[in-house]
Amino acid sequence: MMVSSINKTIEAILDEIDTIQVPIIMPNSGENKRWNQNIPSEPGWYWIKTNAKISTLIEIKYKQGKHTNISETIEKTSILHELELAITQSANEDYVVYNGEAHNLKARAREHFQGHRVTYCLGISDHKSLLNYNWTFYYVPVSKCKTIPEKYSEDTVLRIAVEQAWRAKHGWPILCRK
Fold first, then answer.
1. Tell me: the pLDDT tens digits for 139-152?
2. Which of 64, 111, 138, 148 would suit a FRET pair with 19, their CA atoms being 20 to 30 Å apart?
3. Is 119 a domain residue?
4. Is residue 28 part of a domain?
């Protein structure tokens, strides 16, 4: 396959997911256990947006486990800021701080909000100061992408390729390590 054909395919997928992503507002407390009930338990891509300032995120104290060490991750991605490759906040607007792919979108949304002892995740509700900000989980199930044949709906390599291409198109979210 020629490079231009690959680029056209990736661009078509990215254009489609940019138009069909679904937002779900994350709760500002751990009390709403059903906030993610409409997110499908299937493979896809996701983005997490917030209006929390980088200076606020840098102040978050690391909690042991697989949670993201938020301040360390921002520090490690600082070169991307210098090279203007990172996504930054404009005024007090929401901006993407994390994007990824998942085999189960519903479970991944829950992990990023509530935390998980094994999986690398944000664990937003573990940091009470973060609950003072807007947090929105955007998602697109692979099954909703008309540009992807159904036989590839479970393909992890495809999801990773699209995840990385999204970053090349839109910029690097500051809380992504790799």
1. 999 999 999 988 88
2. 111
3. yes
4. no
Mean per-residue pLDDT for 108-122? Answer: 86
Neighbour order of strands in the sheet with 44-50: 22-25, 135-141, 44-50, 95-102
pLDDT in tens, 4-38: 777 898 999 999 999 999 999 998 866 667 889 99
Q: Compute the distance between CA of residue 137 and CA of residue 98 in angstroms, rounded to an integer.
A: 10
Q: Would you say residue 26 lies in a domain? A: no
Encoded amino acid at 22, one letter: V
Domain with 92, as residue range(s), is 40-170
Q: Alpha carbon of 1 to those of 4, 8, 58, 107, 158: distances in Å? A: 8, 11, 43, 35, 15
- Here the tokens at position 84 are 């203007």
Place of tokens 């680029």: 7
15 lies in some domain: no
Burial grade of 55 (CB within 10 A; 0-12, 13-18, 19 or more): exposed
